[in-house]
Fold this protein.
Amino acid sequence: MQSTGKIIISQNLAQNLGIPINPYIQVRAGQIILTAELVLSNESGNTYSISSKLAEALYIKHPKSMKLRYDREAGHIHLGPTIGVLSTFLPNKEEFDPTGVQADIIYLSNMGKMVPGQVFIFTPGSINWSNNTTRGYVYKQISADRGVWISDIYPLPDVVYDRVSSRISEGKDSIRSTKNRLMNQPYLKYFNPHFLNKWKVHQILINNPRLHQYLPETRLLNTENLEEMLRKYKVLFIKPGNGSLGYGIIKLKSNEKGDINYVVNRGRGRLRTHAENAEDFMKKTKKIRKDKQYIVQQGLDLATFRGSPFDIRIIYQKDGRGEWQISKKFVRVAAPGSSVSNLSSGGRAEPSKKIFKYLYSRKEIIEEKNREVKVLCQTIALTLEKLTNETFGELGLDIGIDKQGHPWLIEVNSKPRKTTETEYSKTIIRNSFKRPLEYSVYLAGY
């Protein structure tokens, strides 16, 4: 039998894992499977090692960092985990923005050194499908303010953590076909596969009766639906189905005469104007909407902090046991005169404890609100995964609190942007980057 190198396993480990004792055995790293000579050692404890020839053939860089398990169903030894963070490009600008994609990817690469196995960044164009390998990149700091990307060849990974950073990139045929091909690999797990569409998310979540009281009434935007919603609510929000960062959101108010005053959010700028009725509004905003899908949503009478509306941003992630946890929670307070709390639109971050203390004087009320928000997050995440049959390892949840203290789901984001700098807890920042990698280790079977 043709074999490549050796794997030396202690008799204790072979017995504990139920590894069949044969002269040869299949060994897998990522998506590469080879036949190796199996050698049993008399060493005490659960130890193993692999020959340099086998390590080279499996593209394992540091064999001592790899864990070993026996996959009974497949009948092979699995060395791992191999974790690939998929990005559309490898940013390396001299000006470092702590809220940008570059900071996100670099921080993830650095956190990868704190989990077992091998973690690398890779791009769709770096894959060699003919031999199931990819060029992967690891960030190396060479001075206090400068680093370089070190590249090497790795096996296609056990787990892909999708960090494709823009909807435009995700929509390209080449990106879509690469992602589909990765998802069809026999031993590969893939999570956070795509951005979420607001209308589709609403249609999914409304199927769970437990969520009805937390979902603002939402419809697809057309003249008929807008007219009906105007009859029911004095304030409406018009949102792009595939929008993010608050761009393109329109706040709409109608008066007793039926006139409509509306404000278009343009990042840090706002356009204030009016329309005579729903039909006039649709005509005047056609250029802004560009025939893209929009939704019309019930306006909420949200609680305010010193006169400004706010929402709670929660980074909700799975941990190393595959269980959902709140990794980060803060409040985004809208800029003066604005109804949009996104930080990119001029909003500011505040600790949730500070805002809850401002709203509610009694400790037990604050604890009850936090419990209700926690249960709401879990219900949303479990419903989304169950009804889409997709795997998510992290979500960004925006929760509003109205003036009666009732929580509302404003938005769910599958690609939450995480900052690498904070004036608050650095441990929270570190955990928010590390948890998806710990979840990746869990998904790989370790």
Remarks:
- The longest helix spans residues 363-388.
- The radius of gyration is 25 Å.
- The first strand starts at residue 6 and ends at 10.
- The chain has four domains: 6-80, 82-191, 196-215+300-414, 217-299.
